Amino acid sequence: MELRHIRYFVATAEAGTVSGAAARLHLTQPGLSRQLRQLEKDLGVPLFDRSTARLELSTTGRALLSQARDLLQRADALKVAASFHALGRLERLTIGAPTVTLTDVVAPFIATLAPDDPTPDVLGADGLSPADTLRQGADLAIGTIPASTPFHEISLAVLPVWAYVPAGHPWADNGTVLLADLLREPLILLPPAFTARLAWEAAVEGAPHQKIEAANGTVAQALAAAGRGIAIASDDPRFGLIPLAVETGGRRLSVRLRATWDSRHAAAVTIEGFAARLGRFIRDRYDAPAS
Predict the structure, then answer these.
(1) Is the CATH code 3.40.50.1980 the one for domain 89-158+255-286?
(2) Is the pTM of this model over 0.90?
(3) Is residue 280 scored above 90 in pLDDT?
(4) Which PROSITE patterns would you find in this protein's record (predicted)?
(5) Which of 39, 124, 161, 215 is a Cys-bridge partner for 5, taking CB atoms 3.0 to 4.6 Å apart?
(6) Which stretches within the chain are classed as H helix?
(7) What is the architecture of the domain spanning 3-75?
């Protein structure tokens, strides 16, 4: 059994089709099919049910998928640990975060790094938990979901979720808006997996309101600028829009940004220091509290 065959198995399970996995892995479809059958032969069990038009995991395949992912994660961790011990420093550091956070927070922070800092890479993690983000290959996961053992986390900052209105809107000079007033207006919301949308849904608790869904914060703000409604987003302002803080019964609508890493990582101390620097950068950039 070869480790690359395990990677092919996981990629195919995640893609749902051999063709999709082959494109992701830069392999031919027949070649990938042969490699998957070789893995099944090595393990002595069928991993996929090929009796239907769509390739589906067998019962055994579903049972083994989590262990396969864990094996790949441990293999990647071994490579990182070997590099860390050989060089005495972390050469590369992958940061996983939602798209908005990567654009508005992580990318500006990367621009401040020194030449002797680890070379950063990023991984999109919309809708993923910290554990899933780290399992996908990130060394540091940025998000809003609390972590559990064996992961460590620190609070980076509490960031507002804004209601964006055009400069000529009657509320533009108010600075804040009541949640109850927003619920009477047409609203432009982000997809359900976005952190700003999750915070919004928790605040409204199912209260009825008129809404349209935009693909991301930039499109939401573009629609607001075009007069289609009020955008609810945590992105930096665009298109000349005015951000209003949303009052929700004694507190303001916000998201708590957390940094999470695996305490067993060979460079855990380095990653923790990197996370602390990121937190200071965010708080300075947005004049935001840590908690």
Answers:
(1) no
(2) no
(3) yes
(4) HTH_LYSR
(5) 39
(6) 3-15, 18-25, 29-43, 59-87, 99-101, 107-110, 130-135, 179-182, 195-204, 217-225, 268-286
(7) Orthogonal Bundle (1.10)
Amino acid at 15: A
Q: Token digits for 195? A: 């952190």
Q: How far, in Å, CA of 252 to CA of 39, rounded?
A: 53
Q: To 10 degrees, what angle do helices 29-43 and 3-15 make?
A: 120
Q: What is the pLDDT of residues 51-79, one digit of tens each?
A: 766 778 888 988 898 888 888 777 777 77
SS (H, E, C) 220-232: HHHHHHCCCCEEE
- Residue 117, CA distances (Å) to 46, 88, 266, 270 in order: 45, 13, 17, 10
pLDDT given for residue 189 in this prediction = 96
Alpha-carbon distance of 214 to 231, in angstroms, equals 9
- CA gap 231, 288 in Å, rounded: 21
Distance CA 195, CA 127 (A): 8
Check if the beta carbon of residue 253 is closer than 8 Å to that of residue 246. Answer: yes
Task: Please give the CATH topology (third level) of the domain spanning 162-252.
Answer: D-Maltodextrin-Binding Protein; domain 2 (3.40.190)
Residues 158-199: tens digit of each pLDDT: 999 999 999 999 999 999 999 999 999 999 999 988 889 989
- State pLDDT tens for residues 119-133: 888 988 887 888 888
